Amino acid sequence: MTYSSYFKGAVWMPAIILPVLLITDAFYFSEPPKGGVEQFFLIYVLGFGLVAYFIFALWASRVINRKTAREVTRLAWWAPVIFIPFYGVPWLLYGLANLLLGKTSGLGMMFLWLAYVPYVLVAGYFFATTSVLISKVVIK
């Protein structure tokens, strides 16, 4: 296994597993949200960052192709920080759209994502550490 294929798989794994876990939870273990499409969008697309992570994984896959093994490992360590703008832009766009539609709650939405950044960083560094450690074992 090459470092490129391993890290591409590591980047795409959360994009595959998280939606499956969220769908399983929504249909089997908890009551579905009663707020309709907007609440679904807020929870899954913004809160869990599904679309943001998918776009980040596309970007990372393209970047991994052009990097050496050492640069890819460095990228893995920086990935949680690099992901922050990918996570924040949908929140900003949603808040701006609400403001343009006359909802003042959009102003709060434009800044609410900052409260989630510590969680994104902790989860990101957990998975970055796990990915790098496993790569040391798998890639020889």
Which features does this protein show?
mainly alpha
Describe the structure concisely.
The protein has 140 residues and is mainly α. It has six helices and no strands.
Distance between the first and last residues' Cα? 8 Å
Content-based structural category = mainly alpha
- Rg, Cα atoms, Å: 17 Å
Q: Specify the helix fraction band.
A: over 70%
> Largest sheet, described in full?
none
Q: Can you write the helix and strand succession as a string?
A: HHHHHH
Count of alpha/pi helices: 6
| Poorly predicted parts | none
Q: How many beta strands in the DSSP annotation?
A: 0
Summarize model confidence as the mean pLDDT.
90
Share in β-strands: under 5%
Overall 3D geometry? globular
Oligomer: single chain
Describe this structure as you would to a colleague.
This protein is an all-alpha fold and 140 residues long. It has a domain of 95 residues. Helices cover 84% and strands 0% of the residues. Helix 1 packs antiparallel against helix 3, helix 4 packs antiparallel against helix 5 and helix 4 packs antiparallel against helix 6.
